[in-house]
């Protein structure tokens, strides 16, 4: 039950991590988030719930995921590198941890209908999978632009029995899909659970999404001690909304000597203005129900994020990351699209592992950090997902269809 | 003139107050001033001036599209105060309805200061609950503005009571679970919610979400102190000033025809 044990790092009763988090939602949704928080408080202490969750992680998702050393990749990083293989989970990323947990909570609350947002489609596919497994109705909101970019994932969700609704408002991407899911939720809240895909949103989402992903860090800590005989110098993860990062960070958060490093999508570079580096370049604000760093203009209008990785293409970030940045427990820096794609190709070629472009940001971060640690250093990189879904992007980026070479 | 005067005047005439909404900057900044003045001249006792926001999660397609149009035409937050001034200079009364992030970004105290200076009477806050409103409580006290929080059919008794205590001017009761947008029938949840609110407060109660006709206004006026109309005005603006005036007049007649049935 270690995964669900209350920690000194939990938010206060109203969901505040320092000045961050809370609930900036319409009153109409307060009853639903209160119900969810109360149900989660009971479930996290209920051996039956925890047991069922752990059984699904093991027998359905395929946990524990491996910790793989990457020696040839490490030659380029100049330090020793281990990869936490969330790419090997069922549905291909860490997302399955959270959706199984929330789908079980949905059943506990007696609700029959699940809605979700998705950007690249990973969370949508994972949600559709959990709903198929547990017999829940599933509706996924996806920006119209993303349904075009990720047609294969749309097909996957439909095959799994989910209804996919293209969102035509605003920038027609992830943030607009979240807006539309919130509108659905406020209208149908009695019978519907909003299965939010990242550690953001109103309390209790940042807490429970984090806890469902804490398994990543718990496993990784045990595995690195066993394989390397010591704790790593740093744990590196990509940060869009920040769910995979917060999950692995928590395994090491009380190990003061382990640096927690979040890598943000730098897009075409911070100077270009075309990026999604919310923690590096954003300012405090409220978006999608919580106070956190956000990307906004001087009038408080939310600006569009840009990243080659659809899963990191989000102008907000989970509130606990804002807190960890402020108190100095975690550090965040961006890498560009080009740096991420170079790491994507490098891991594929050197280790025979095609990473998700999201996770490639963490790999690029490791390449930057490595030289300062030297050959005696030790890094754990969260390989949050696999790159199958990104082949269209890779084909275009590297010109692979024309005989190009990455 | 304060918000309580708006409601006591209506009450003295044994009717509900008519409250009309339009986003500032829609269809243009000057256009919104003209339309808001028309709404007041044709029977709105109070106008809600909306602040267009990039991510309006409580709004349906009509108001979303209006906000998008205003923003792409270059609307700035400072234009809001200009629009509110135009309303108050014309003898009208205005509150602002806004999502919270633009207020945070402007500075809660500075926003309250500039709104009060423009003659605005208060703020309706669709995504700010009293639990998170410490700064706004202080700023509204400092600048003499009313705080209009929302209650919903899903609000518990405790939350209705707490929200009523935190509010001033009036309480905004959302008639249905859902987003803004004109609907054909008045929800049965509305009278029940207003009844629950009255057990906790003597503040006036305005009912909104989905009202578009004089007949619906009359029905709501039978149990509420204020009838709030938004999307229908936005749609009327697209048809022109004559439609705006006609809608306001129809609704004004509606809020006056319920008294006998109470």
TrEMBL record, chain A:
GO MF assignments: tryptophan synthase activity
Catalysed reaction equations from the record: (1S,2R)-1-C-(indol-3-yl)glycerol 3-phosphate + L-serine = D-glyceraldehyde 3-phosphate + L-tryptophan + H2O
Domain Tryptophan synthase beta chain-like PALP span(s) in chain numbering: 63-385
PROSITE patterns cross-referenced by the UniProt entry: TRP_SYNTHASE_BETA
Pathway, per record: Amino-acid biosynthesis; L-tryptophan biosynthesis; L-tryptophan from chorismate: step 5/5
Keywords: Amino-acid biosynthesis, Aromatic amino acid biosynthesis, Lyase, Pyridoxal phosphate, Tryptophan biosynthesis
Keyword Amino-acid biosynthesis appears in the UniProt entry: yes
InterPro entries: Trp_synth_b_CS, Trp_synth_beta, Trp_synth_beta/beta-like, TrpB-like_PALP, TrpB-like_PALP_sf
This protein's GO CC annotations: cytoplasm
SUPFAM superfamilies: Tryptophan synthase beta subunit-like PLP-dependent enzymes
E.C. number: 4.2.1.20
Presence of keyword Thylakoid: no
Positions of post-translational N6-(pyridoxal phosphate)lysine modification: 95
Enzyme class name: lyase
Family the UniProt entry places it in: Belongs to the TrpB family.
Subunit architecture: Tetramer of two alpha and two beta chains.
Function text: The beta subunit is responsible for the synthesis of L-tryptophan from indole and L-serine.
HAMAP family, per the entry: Trp_synth_beta
Protein name according to UniProt: Tryptophan synthase beta chain
Native species: Lentzea jiangxiensis
From TrEMBL, chain B:
Family matches, as Pfam families: Trp_syntA
Catalytic site: 48 (proton acceptor), 59 (proton acceptor)
Alphabetized GO MF terms: tryptophan synthase activity
Pathway: Amino-acid biosynthesis; L-tryptophan biosynthesis; L-tryptophan from chorismate: step 5/5
Keywords tagged on the record: Amino-acid biosynthesis, Aromatic amino acid biosynthesis, Lyase, Tryptophan biosynthesis
EC number, UniProt record: 4.2.1.20
Catalytic activity: (1S,2R)-1-C-(indol-3-yl)glycerol 3-phosphate + L-serine = D-glyceraldehyde 3-phosphate + L-tryptophan + H2O
InterPro entries in alphabetical order: Aldolase_TIM (IPR013785), RibuloseP-bd_barrel (IPR011060), Trp_synthase_alpha_AS (IPR018204), Trp_synthase_suA (IPR002028)
Database matches in CDD domains: Tryptophan_synthase_alpha
Enzymatic class: lyase
Top-level taxon of the source organism: Bacteria
Keyword Lyase belongs to the record: yes
GO cellular component, one term: cytosol
SUPFAM superfamilies, sorted: Ribulose-phoshate binding barrel (SSF51366)
SUBUNIT field: Tetramer of two alpha and two beta chains.
Family classification: Belongs to the TrpA family.
Database matches in PANTHER family: TRYPTOPHAN SYNTHASE ALPHA CHAIN, CHLOROPLASTIC, TRYPTOPHAN SYNTHASE, ALPHA CHAIN
Role noted for this protein: The alpha subunit is responsible for the aldol cleavage of indoleglycerol phosphate to indole and glyceraldehyde 3-phosphate.
Protein's name according to its UniProt entry: Tryptophan synthase alpha chain
Native organism: Lentzea jiangxiensis
Top-level taxonomy: Bacteria, Bacillati, Actinomycetota, Actinomycetes, Pseudonocardiales
